[in-house]
Amino acid sequence: LELTEFKVRDETTGKLPFRHALLVELVSHIFIRFFTFKTLKMSLRQKKSVNAEFKESNSEFTPNLKAQTGKTWGRDRDISYITVLFSTLILTCCPLLVFVFWVSCTHYQCSLYEPIYRLQISGFSEKAFDSVVLQKLPQFTWEGIKIYAIWLSFQAIIYAILPAKIGYGQRTPAGHILPYKVRFEKIFRKKTFYFNWWEGSIIHDNWGALLIAANIYGYFLTFFVFAKAYIMPSHPEDRKFSGSFIYDLLMGIEMNPRFGKYWDFKLFHNGRPGIIAWTLINLSFAAAQYNKIGYVTNSMILLNFLHAVYVLDFFYNEDWYLRTIDIAHDHFGFYLAWGDTVWLPWMSHYLVRNTIDLSIPYFLLVLTIGLSGYYIFRAVNHQKDIVRRRNGDCIIWGKPAQFIKTHFVTSDGKEHSSILLTSGFWGISRHFNYVGDLLISSAMCLACGFDHLLPYFYIIYMFILLIHRIYRDDARCRGKYGKYWDNYCQVVKWKLLPYVF
Ligand code: NDP
């Protein structure tokens, strides 16, 4: 009816200039009808029980879809207005922040203050804003899109077709135990070989355009998985609807979106284009530094080494990764989709712009901090992994493992058991593995010297991320394990560091 009306109204011009408007109208109708209106309406009523409400609206709206209902443990449901506000800020400001860093590094030697100073001396005029900021923004190029598309497709295809070991994830809130393709380390080696076909500094040379391409993909992926969760969910009963459109966009609805049996969105984006790109980006920046100054600084080598250790560890122990919060508990939304594709470290970029030669004692100090962090990170995570895999039948620090046997119920009503380790590192604090990560991150920042604040953004970010995770995980585990978790918290009192936090 709307189509006909548009055409009739348009007869005055004799053309069809409204064709685009019509398309926009149709698309926005579909969008508003299917997502926004329904979820915003729910948002307004979220003080009531969102779960019961979703069940009701879902059956009226899409009768065949099932989702977790009732107060099953897992992701948050009753979302406050403050959370929605923060979610909106994250969705909009994070990409802006990435571009601010890019401009600062590319044009002002990574100084955050310099552009502000220049704006200030020009009285924050429109002209100054244009020359200091707008004209310095990265430019879209098809070359950037092409390189990114080749990289992504290449990764996606090898992830789909190459054989791999099958690992199994943790039981989901709906009771599934899903298979994952893990241990691709041989293929990883081959990929670095393919990388040699291009100029070593290719990523550095197209960094701005690649950042734009990655952002476009990050947002596309966010909306794609959001729509997929409604239209063709992989495991419908493992979806979570918070009642807020914005929060669902940020934190995701589907827990394990997949194509087919094995092509897992979360594992793929976390572990393939993102984390491998991290090492390649570093190498490319090292190559760019070599082209620029004729040698590679020891700070760049140190940073490349620390990042590479972390990444190689990921591939070597990929099975372990299936038991982490990212894979076992987080749903797939902007937080992981955009985070995995865009939120890449900036330190190597920093080192290309600022040549830093570290003294040998300082170099060794930073290396020691980094390696100690890595040791803690690996040893703590290994203890949890082994105790879970062997169901408690293992030795920790020379003695039989001590643990609390727990019970929990999945949303299909079935009861399961699990164990919470209370000896070894897990007897010191509930998240001692985060101490390891914080040390590694500090070392990565320290490798960049003390000239600017920008490289230290990474440790600030990691600190906020991990502290927030501690609270998030605590709430989720309490929901899952109830009295067993309370008992565990009495046995292991400290969250991160004994006598500190
Ligand atoms: P954990 O690996 O600590 O996983 C937490 C989960 O483990 C809990 O939800 C619970 O899940 C289970 N668990 C909790 N306590 C115990 C226990 N005592 N015994 C056995 N299982 C327990 O957290 P993350 O996934 O956040 O971190 C994994 C690693 O990744 C860490 O080293 C972290 O620092 C690192 N990391 C790095 C990031 C980066 O960007 N570099 C970002 C985030 C994390 P269940 O429901 O199965 O019981």
Features:
mainly alpha, 62% helix, globular, 8 strands, two-stranded antiparallel sheet, disordered N terminus, 501 residues, 22 helices, 6979_t:CDS:1, binds NADPH dihydro-nicotinamide-adenine-dinucleotide phosphate
Plain-language structure description:
It is a single chain. A two-stranded antiparallel sheet has the order 1-2. The protein starts with a helix and ends in a 10-residue tail after the last helix. The protein is built from 22 helices and eight strands. It is globular, with a radius of gyration of 25 Å. 37% of the residues are buried. By secondary structure, the protein is mainly alpha-helical. It binds NADPH dihydro-nicotinamide-adenine-dinucleotide phosphate. NADPH dihydro-nicotinamide-adenine-dinucleotide phosphate binds next to helix 15, helix 18, strand 8, helix 20 and helix 21. NADPH dihydro-nicotinamide-adenine-dinucleotide phosphate (NDP) binds next to helix 15, helix 18, strand 8, helix 20 and helix 21. This is 6979_t:CDS:1.
Query: Which whole number gives the mean pLDDT?
Result: 82
Overall 3D form: globular
> Structural class, from secondary structure content?
mainly alpha
Query: Cofactors and ligands present?
Result: NADPH dihydro-nicotinamide-adenine-dinucleotide phosphate
User: What is the makeup of the main sheet?
Assistant: 2 strands, antiparallel
How much of the sequence lies in strands comes to 5-15%
Beta strands, count = 8
Give the end-to-end Cα distance, rounded to a whole number of Å. Answer: 63 Å
Helix content: 55-70%
The Cα radius of gyration reads: 25 Å
What's the SSE pattern? HHHHHHHEEHHHHEEHHHHHHHEEEEHHHH
Number of helices: 22
Organism: Dentiscutata heterogama
Protein name: 6979_t:CDS:1
